[in-house]
Amino acid sequence: MTDERTPAAIDTTTPHSARVWNYWLGGKDNYEVDREVGEQVRRVYPGIVDVARHSRAFLGRAVRHLAGEAGITQFLDLGTGLPTVDNTHEVAQRVNPACKIVYVDNDPLVLVHARALLTSTREGVCDYVDADVRDPAHILREAARTLDFDRPIALMMLGILGNVWDDAEAREVRDHLVAALAPGSHLVLEDGTNAVDPEAAAEAEKTRAEAGDPYKLRTPQQIASYFEGLRLLEPGVVSVSRWRPEETPWGVPDEVTAFCGVAVKP
Q1: Among 29, 81, 194, 203, which residue's beta carbon has the most beta carbons within 10 A?
Q2: What is the DSSP string of 160-229?
Q3: Bridge partners, residue 130, by sequence
């Protein structure tokens, strides 16, 4: 790992989105305050666990496509979260062991676990940047120590822009990062919406904000706007459960309230 700044003390009294998400995915890297918020949200919106699981499965399908068919060998993953199963580098390096992945997060617990567990193949590289998504210039500067921005990169922004409450600021972050990418790069983006079960989603948004873990839900149309200027891959902007789902005997999975897309920079 190249970013050797000492992590700040871990705050176990305030919930953190990465640790709450880890709880919903069945992980153990969370604290009582995170579990309390996770349960509060689940009580008002029971579908949140399905959202977490389908979002993780979408990550796997998207990364397999990028590292395989699209030939992408570099990944910049913002909002890493806590390591669980099939992290970006694991999926990518199973397809191509030479893939390089830079993870970005700003939670001390995530930093500690990432340095210990996000280990690369010998042929590839796995690195970690301690940074806030609201500071894209710092992210790009640190990521450039590992990634070659003259070549295509997959920019992974899964469940991250909801942490940027202001709509204009969220768009500025996206624009700054996408502008730095070479042609042939891809944007993989997913975030929570109020599209499937608006009342429950609104209650969950309120619950998280009151608990100190605010996360802004946006409409599918707002999420689609993040892909302006890029060429969306089929099937466009859809629920994470509907983006190229695996075939099963039970047909197409139900929609969940997180929407996503994958697009290429011309």
Answers
A1: 81
A2: -GGG--SHHHHHHHHHHHHHTSPTT-EEEEEEE-SSSSHHHHHHHHHHHHHTT-------HHHHHHTTTT
A3: 105
Q: What is the per-residue pLDDT across 201-245, written as a single tens digit (0 to 9) for each?
A: 888 888 888 878 788 999 999 999 999 999 999 999 999 999 999
Tokens read off for 44: 């008002």
CA distances from 162 to 74, 96, 110, 229 (A): 24, 31, 18, 21
- Confidence band of 2 (pLDDT split at 50, 70, 90): very low
Q: What mean pLDDT is predicted for residues 141-147?
A: 98
**Dihedral sign (CA 194, 197, 203, 208):** negative
Band of pLDDT at residue 186, cut at 50, 70 and 90:
very high
DSSP letters, the chain, are ----PPPPPP-SSS--HHHHHHHHTT-S---HHHHHHHHHHHHH-TTHHHHHHHHHHHHHHHHHHHHTTT---EEEEES--S--SS-HHHHHHHH-TT-EEEEEE--HHHHHHHHHH-PPPSSSEEEEEE--TT-HHHHHHHHTTTS-TTS--EEEEES-GGG--SHHHHHHHHHHHHHTSPTT-EEEEEEE-SSSSHHHHHHHHHHHHHTT-------HHHHHHTTTTSEEPTT-SEEGGGSSPPP-TT-SPPP-SEEEEEEE--
Q: Within its chain, how far is the Cα of 179 from the centroid? A: 19
Whose structure tokens read 């666990």? 49
Q: How far apart are CA 190 and CA 35, in angstroms?
A: 23
CB atoms near residue 46 (< 10 Å): 12
